[in-house]
Fold:
Amino acid sequence: MRNGHTDGAYLNWRSPTRLMPECQGSALPPVFVGAPLEKRKQNLLLELVLVASMRTAIAPIERAQLLMHSQNAIIQSDRLSRPYKGIFNCFARTIRNEGVISLWRGNTARVIGGCSMRAISFAWTSYSRSQNGHGDYGLLIVVGGFFAIKLVTYPLTYAGTRLANDVKTASKVGKWQFNGMVDVRRKTLISDGIAGLCRGFQVSLISSIMRFIAKNQLSAALKPRQLLLSLGLQNSYLAAAAVAIGFDVCTRMTFYPMATVSKRMMMTSGEAIKYKNTSDAFSQIFKKEGLKSFYNGVRAEMLWIVAAYGFSCVFFYLARSGGPIRGKKNGSGEMENSSDVSYSTLS
Structure:
């Protein structure tokens, strides 16, 4: 059995190429591995606090990334006059037109979605543990985990994305298209039905599964655990986090065009013109806007990844501090005070 990390879910499988000390695939810090259910529930609560605080703290970066990611679609809908020149230009124009508080627009939906993701991940992890010895069903468990998480949280992702991409500019100065998360759902259901809330779901699900496979294969090929051992950094929390950031950046950038298509399909809900399917979306975006359009906002995405991992490191250090970040070793040479950053919060 191997460690499996879905896009927001950890399945408690074991891997010889784990990144973090003691247990990479588990959503639990090392101190909780094999711990009683009550301690695991306490750790889940800690991770839910992390999700909410982390997403709220770096919400301005996330909104800038979403705006830059979908700026061509916003321009086509006549809600944005011209493209953003970069992340700082995006911040400046958004603050000038909408105010500082607007940088957190859509954050509530994203926080609820992230917390829901963690809760489902916890339940799925517990179930996967009960399936030890049933390796024949491993793939079904992984795919089921991806599907369940995406199905439940995608409407929240949709609402957060539409709110973040709702701007007060161009021909609709002073007016937002949506007045909140409930209003997004209501208007979408009226115009497009349930399908409108799930537009882009298929490519998003496929992207998540491919990222999971890519991370596993990349880890197996590069053997980061052995690299850290050779450098004497096997117990360094920061070194392991840096390697994990590298892995996440590589896989996210590889499948970034699929994320672009998913967001662009979301943006057509409620609009007169829609893409027929995923392949039609890829084709039309490429023909009309070129390859570069698939990578809009990619620098903001990398900044968001680094900020999210950094916040998670600081959060767990403060939550369990009392000792240095490197922690101390127990009798077997493993870390006692370090904690595995809950990378499942980075979705």
Q: What stands out?
A: The first helix runs from residue 37 to 57. Confidence is low (pLDDT under 50) at residues 1-36, 322-345. The longest strand covers residues 4-6.
